[in-house]
Amino acid sequence: MLGDYFGSSFFELLQVEHPQLVPDLSAWSGAAGQTIPHGTTVLAMRFSDGVLVAGDRLATAGHSVASRDVVKVFATDSHSLMAISGAAGPSIEMARVLSVELEHYEKIEGEALELEGKANKLSQMIRQNLPAAMQGLAVVPLFAGFDGRRKQGRLWKFDITGGRYEEADFDATGSGGLYAREALKQGWREGLSAPEAVELSVAALTAAADEDRATGGVDLERRIFPIVKVCSEVGVKDTDEDGIERAYREILSRRTSSP
Fold first, then answer.
1. Can you name the CATH fold of 10-18+36-257?
2. Looking at residue 2, what is its pLDDT?
3. Which residues participate in catalysis according to the annotation?
4. Average pLDDT for residues 130-139, to the nearest whole number?
């Protein structure tokens, strides 16, 4: 039996056909007075073949460690990535809803949504979270992907009202975002290779961890490494932990050999 909705938005389909199933991100507002886990530092940058998105693994609740191995970088489809900072619960839920939304659109329309349209979808979801954000449960993500039409990587940052702002080269957000962004500013250049971008991302997260106690960095003792994903024309790929460890040890080696 046909329903009343004929568009390609999964979120709008639920609102029309099954409103009781619509994810209510504002429901988290009831926890605003509690000490809830928050994700901290994430970053994104362009490199020669596309974009890289990375995040540390630490989540904090007040001055305590809530989790040492939380995942903050998600592939929302085959050619886009979302990195989360802010209140961990609604942030992760938003990333999952966006992934389903993009998959539904592609199945209905027969082709993927344009990259800028994906950023618009995320902007709408952040706007719906505004009541919870005003109570301290903000979702402040980064979104990046490979634009098949322009044949290049692109990235956006957002504010708590859903405003989106495209960044030309790189950005970082979260409690250690300022320190990560300064490291990116010093090390980024046009035409970075993928290995160079990975090393720069590890250096930026290490710099953030040095200055911000809520940023995890690399934990060699527990074998916990940042999540680093790259997105190019061929799709999304994870950076293996061995590559991240090599980059980190190279950073340590340069530090100890420097006067």
1. Glutamine Phosphoribosylpyrophosphate, subunit 1, domain 1 (3.60.20)
2. 47
3. 40
4. 82
